[in-house]
Amino acid sequence: MNRKIWGQHKLIDNTVLDQIVELAQITKNHIVYEIGSGTGNLTYKLCDKAKKVISSEIDEKYYSICVDKFSKTDNLKLINGDGFTIDINYDILMSNLPYSKSSRFIEWLINENFIRAVVLVQTEFADKLVAKPGNKNYRSITVIANANFYVSKVGNISNHHFSPIPKVLTSILLIKPKNKKININSMKIIKFLFSMRGKKLSSIIKIINKNFVNDFSSVIPYQLSNVNIEKIEIHDFLKIVDDLYNIGFKIE
Fold first, then answer.
1. Looking at the chain, which terminus has fewer C-beta neighbours within 10 angstroms, N or C?
2. How far, in Å, CA of 249 to CA of 252, rounded?
3. Per-residue pLDDT averaged across 186-214, rounded?
4. Is the pTM of this model over 0.70?
């Protein structure tokens, strides 16, 4: 199997690995879920800290390497499969995410129960998650992520700490869940609204009214009616989404 399919770049610097583990605040009371065992560089350190580690690896070659390497490690369960399709209970999530899976990861994480997650992602994607309204990186995934999680970009990692050396920059994210999470219908509305970047909110509502039976004009806050959709603060954006949904607007 060609591992380039998964976009895997192994973190090989011990100092950085230790910093990531420390950030996760793992104790002997925690069950840790690692998506992407790779060759076990992070897995080894997680097993040293946690009560139990469950580590999934989609690549059969890497999985086999870890089976041999950790044959005598009692508190580790290795799984060969897609980490996003495995149903398990855990406290802390750790992952050096394949760059191609970042958006899928956020939407998958919404339905997970966890204390915190420490993940490595492409810096371009991390910048989208922490972007402010009006910034070019402020997108639908920004609103979706921040509606469900507290997201912190902790720092960046030099490309030379990975093997093979990636062509893109990598950042560390610390993610903690919020008590209230949005539903799939609200996510669809967020994506729909952001498909009209560059348009004022009042113009978007007019477009909606032409295609649906209900009149949605009542959801427009006066002070936001002439604001472009990508410049609306997250809390105001979510209020508009809730109001649209509550009076009958849905994306099939």
1. C
2. 10
3. 90
4. yes
